[in-house]
Amino acid sequence: MAKGIEMREAHFPGRAPVDAYGNGGFRFADMSHRGSVLMLPSGIYGWDMAEGDALTADRFQRVLDEAGDIEVLLVGTGMDIRPLPENLRMTLKDHGISSDPMSTGAAVRTFNIMLAESRAVAAALIVV
User: Fold this and answer.
1) 70 phi and psi, to 5 degrees?
2) What is the rounded CA–CA span in Å between residue 96 and residue 32?
3) CA 104/CA 68 separation, integer angstroms
4) 3-state helix/strand/coil string of 14-62
5) How far apart are CA 88 and CA 86, in angstroms?
6) Interatomic CA distance for residues 54 and 41, integer angstroms
7) For 62-116, what is each residue's pLDDT tens digit?
8) Is pTM beyond 0.85 here?
9) 99 has which bridge partners?
């Protein structure tokens, strides 16, 4: 007997540049995703974040789990730049990750360049 629809956590198992963003989502690797994303060395994951949500360390746990493969984390904070709270910035630094908050558009462009340079970069992109 058929089970019905099975919902899975959004995940793309690879690294890919962002082809487009806006209107509530991102396009990459000939696919699209509605909502925010984490672009990590292990792949691209759906991220339950919206503009204005609190930027807390627990929201970045997946980033911290992969800290050994990340030197720079670009944080796209939405339409406007929001500074990272000091405790989050220090938690990332304690894990060897340099963080750089910027608008999501700037983060997408910078991520694509750093990825093309084969840099140890990750991005946390809040949807716009």
Assistant:
1) -125, 125
2) 31
3) 24
4) CCCCEEEEECCEEEECCEEEECEEEEECCEEEEECCCCCCCCCHHHHHH
5) 5
6) 24
7) 999 999 999 999 999 999 999 999 999 999 999 999 999 999 999 999 999 999 9
8) yes
9) 73
